[in-house]
Amino acid sequence: MLLTIRSLTKTFPGTRALDGVDFDLAAGEIHALLGENGAGKSTLIKCLTGAYARDAGKISLDGQTVSPKSTSEAQELGIGTVYQEVNLLANLTVAQNLTFGREPTRFGMVDGRAQRQQAEAMLEGYGLDIDVSRDLSTYSVAVRQIVAIARAVALSGKVLILDEPTASLDSREVETLFGVMRKLRDQGMGMIFVSHFLDQVFSLTDRVTVLRNGRKITTERTADLDRVRLIEHMLGHTLENEVAGHRKADHGLPRSELLRFEDFGRRGHIEPFNLSVGEGEVLGLAGLLGSGRTESAELMFGVASAHSGSAQDKSGAIDLSSPRAAIAAGFGFAPEERKADGIVADLSVRENIALAMQARRGWARPISRSEQTRLAQDYIARLDIRTSGPDQVVGDLSGGNQQKVVLARWLAMNPRFLILDEPTRGIDVGAHAEILRLIDEVTKEGMSILVISSELDELIAVANRVIVVRDRRHVAELTGSEITTETIVRAIAAPEQGEDAA
Amino acid sequence: MNPRLYPLAATIAIFLVAWVICVLQFPYMLSTRVVGNLLTDNAYLGIVAVGMTIVILSGGIDLSVGSVIAFAGVFISVMLRDSGLHPLVVFALLLVLTTAFGAAMGWLIHTLAMPPFIVTLAGMFLARGLAYMLTIDSVPINHGFYKFLNDAYWLMPGKGRLTLIGVVMLLTVAVGMVVAHRTKFGASVLALGGGEATARLMGVRVGATTVAIYAFSGFMAGLAGIVFSIYTSSGYPLATVGTELTAIAAVVIGGTLLTGGAGFVFGTLIGVLTMGLIQTFIVFDGTLSSWWTKIIIGILLLSFILLQKGLMRLSTVGQRA
Amino acid sequence: MTALLRITPQLLTLAALMAMVTLFFPGFLKIEFVDGRLVGPVMDILKRGAPVGLLAVGMTLVIATRGIDLSVGTVVAITGAVTAWAITNGYGLGGALVLALAAGAVAGIWNGCLVAIAGIQPIVATLILMTSGRGIAQLVTEGRILTFSHDGLAFFGSGDLLGIPVPALIWLATAIGVTLLMRRTALGLLVEAVGVNRAASALAGVNATVLLIAVYVASGLCAALAGIIATADIRGADANNAGLWLELDAILAVVIGGNSLLGGRFSIAAALLGALIIQTIDTGILLAGFPSEYNLVIKAALVLVILVLQSPNLAGHWYALRRTFGRQPAATTATAKGAKQ
């Protein structure tokens, strides 16, 4: 074994984050590390990279016991890490990033030419053709990710930890990344792969280890596992077909029309599209990252203004020139980037829930504290938000509960049209199912919802109608029994099919 | 051209255009005398701006430098008056003091995790206060060595004087360029400016680097103080009030991002010279009042900041497409 | 109750300072009633603290939105110059006050637009007016010290009402007025929300752009009031020295008041206590009989001590120490948060 971890334990005040965890990594293996949020994945990684000191247990690399005290010490030992976002410095050149800390020098000065040559040599074999003297910020996230891997491999060369590396990549970029990883595996690297995307785990990894509540549940060969059993391991109880099998009973029912978008578009964002939204309908928006999904939503909510077309309801045209106008028209929008665009982290649960309502009432008509508290307690109970109370700071909640707070903010407004962009991304499976149940519940009361999601199962489970977006165009519309994984994938993939349905 | 060079190119272009305008109006401004004076008059500012560039590149700010220059002048003049030490010994003592002062501020910024703005603000009060404690009067310097330093210049063709302090400033800029762009320390500085968390992940020793950055700025402020004392042949505790602001303005006009992480020491030199050029122009004109200098520098600052904003927007759009 | 708890450290610091000054100067706390007005060192502090106090009120709001306003000192100079110019050019007292406040508002709109619409970092955006503002003030006064004799205007600087100096009344009224405006309406919450997360607030329907411009206008108006007081006090406008470095004192006051430079939660009362702490240091050093040359050094030292005591890292060390020695593991959320950072 390249890396062996035995009985690793780490305790924080109040919680035991890791409880006697064993883990093995062989050379030339890609090993998936899975678990719900809070299962102990990031604590395990931080113990490995020296960010945390372990309380008990043993880590050995190539048979030698190691206890790295800092990230750089872990790197020197041979353990490199690539994170989802904070990896490299976008304000430095690619070459500076690659050689950082080991710059070739001449007479005590950094030798720029040698630095570029060294950087180019490091990038060899990764299939990148880029100018290393340019700022890293001029390249896409996928390129930066591969540069980060190249740096980690060159620096460490034994164990590579990839923490959610695919979270902001589109599928082609993911394939490029996987190509690089497979190549490294063939060269004998051991890789730990952390991801929420189960598809990727199945297509890429050799073995899977599941953590739950700080304990190791199982380690199995990926080929021997099936999806349901894996989710069982992660959840700890049998999944009650809530997510996968839930289908709306009223598919295809005739509905009265709530909204109609005609020739609605914006250059460079999304081609003009026509869309009709029925009352109490759940619309799904499927497509790859960057296909124009989020752009469609942002246009409908007035985050970017439309260059063409109009939006209408029964009483005529509606103004969607800004989020404030959209809210006044009865719209709501829970954005994809929850931390950046959703929650106001330092404020309390109470204030976060009341925020949109307060903004609509205007500053001169404050919602009293008792009213806010009542509102918050109401939604804490209704959405089962796990918090110590309405006055807890939202930033301290887990991702799923933060998402519920954002949902509560909008439900309190009782909008007629609510847009949810990736409402279940990065949250644990339990909260996932609850949010889908909630969508079902509120649409029964007449609210219309647009759900954007990368998870097809999720769309199939909740949507009455699915719009497929490709290359910044709405290319297909599927209803009722047409909504299957196969039809959606085909519409996303094949330009010649499903075009007529748009 | 590599896009990272655009702000520097804009700085140089604006300087050249400004100079051409000046020369069209007053052909004499092309003479080496004007050039020599430009370098001499702005020597202390150029030196302190080099230190400020490093600080700003790291994402910090150093408000103490104006006070440190004043302290340096007072320290030198009082020491020369009262102690009988040779100026060179006093210079060495002073540089040790100001470097340690900067290092102490860097240490506080790092260990207390306080914003540099606030810590160096306290440093600004402290240095100015120490200057007051030494003397509240203007103290002339009559040492023979100072006369020698003042008379040291190279007569350029056209009778312009390239003074010693002008040369010291140019050398400082050269040193600053090497430190910022050609050393591992410089790479760490830029890394800090790009983001402390990431810099730490990449192996930057954040604490040591922060201390070194402010120590460097303290050293440069001390050196600027020496040059300023040579320039004025005196020390006065109320001197160079607001120089930190002028230095920051020069750095920004020089194309360095005030948020840190990108910029050029050479640009700072051009920034200093551009500001000096405006001042010279107003002196030449004679009818314009002195306050127009401040207003024009404000306008220049604004246009540079807007330009950088525009460039950044362009590059992000390019990345999206 | 929580509000009182919030300003306890500042109250304690102020009390300790006052006790210290009293040790050196026993008459410090004495207030006498002479010629129909209250006199004494404390009244003097209340009066002299007016400019910094007023600036601190506006600065607190700006800092709560994660901004900073470096230009307030020069806005004091500009509005002071406008006041003196208007009064000497026959606009009358009302005209002078209106013009000065309008000038402050324009400065605020300028800063606010650069920050909120052009999207320039506040420290950079306000630096522009900070460097060029004194030039504008000199433009108004044409480079001279513009003096006037107008008793109505001078009243704002050196008059008394009910025995209390007018500048003290102005800053107290402004502070109470702004606090009520923030806390009795939803403005306080909206300002805090924008300060913590502007993007999220805007998506929730908060008009962040207008709100941001508004706080800079508030800051400009506070600076205008300070400018009027400063000019009225010396019966003249000095474009070079009026309000010089006051922005730094104001920022310091806000920080000593425990407001984070990273925006979010704010307390105007605590910032005002910060301003009083600074003024007590200034006045106290003189009263305690130290030569005025020591003023800045002592101020710097005290500022450093206060900053060290408030440092988030120190709170973390303190928490760790207490944990190590095993006493009272239950810490407040504030210290626990500090420990995490």
Automatic annotation (TrEMBL), chain A:
Residues 3-238, 253-496 form the ABC transporter domain. CDD domains: ABC_Carb_Monos_I, ABC_Carb_Monos_II. It is a peripheral membrane protein. It comes from the Bacteria. GO terms for molecular function: ATP binding; ATP hydrolysis activity. The keyword Glycosyltransferase does not apply. Keywords: ATP-binding, Cell membrane, Hydrolase, Membrane, Nucleotide-binding, Repeat, Sugar transport, Translocase, Transport. GO terms for cellular component: plasma membrane. SMART domains: AAA. It holds the Pfam family ABC_tran. Its EC number is 3.6.3.17. It is found in: Cell membrane. PANTHER family: CARBOHYDRATE TRANSPORT ATP-BINDING PROTEIN MG119-RELATED (PTHR43790), GALACTOFURANOSE TRANSPORTER ATP-BINDING PROTEIN YTFR (PTHR43790:SF9). This is Arabinose import ATP-binding protein AraG. It comes from Tritonibacter horizontis.
Automatic annotation (TrEMBL), chain B:
One of its GO terms (molecular function) is transmembrane transporter activity. It is found in: Cell membrane. It comes from the Bacteria. GO terms for cellular component: plasma membrane. Keywords: Cell membrane, Membrane, Transmembrane, Transmembrane helix. InterPro entries: ABC_transp_permease. It holds the Pfam family BPD_transp_2. The chain crosses the membrane at residues 6-31, 43-76, 88-110, 117-141, 161-180, 211-231, 290-307. It is a multi-pass membrane protein. PANTHER family: ABC TRANSPORTER PERMEASE PROTEIN YPHD-RELATED-RELATED (PTHR32196), INNER MEMBRANE ABC TRANSPORTER PERMEASE PROTEIN YJFF (PTHR32196:SF63). NCBIfam families: PRK11618.1 (NF008630). This is Inner membrane ABC transporter permease protein YjfF.
UniProtKB/TrEMBL annotation, chain C:
It holds the Pfam family BPD_transp_2. One of its GO terms (molecular function) is transmembrane transporter activity. It is found in: Cell membrane. InterPro entries: ABC_transp_permease. It is a multi-pass membrane protein. Keywords: Cell membrane, Membrane, Transmembrane, Transmembrane helix. The chain crosses the membrane at residues 12-33, 45-63, 161-181, 202-230, 242-262, 269-290, 296-320. Its main location: membrane. It comes from the Bacteria. GO terms for cellular component: plasma membrane. This is Inner membrane ABC transporter permease protein YtfT. It comes from Tritonibacter horizontis. The lineage of its organism: Bacteria, Pseudomonadati, Pseudomonadota, Alphaproteobacteria, Rhodobacterales.
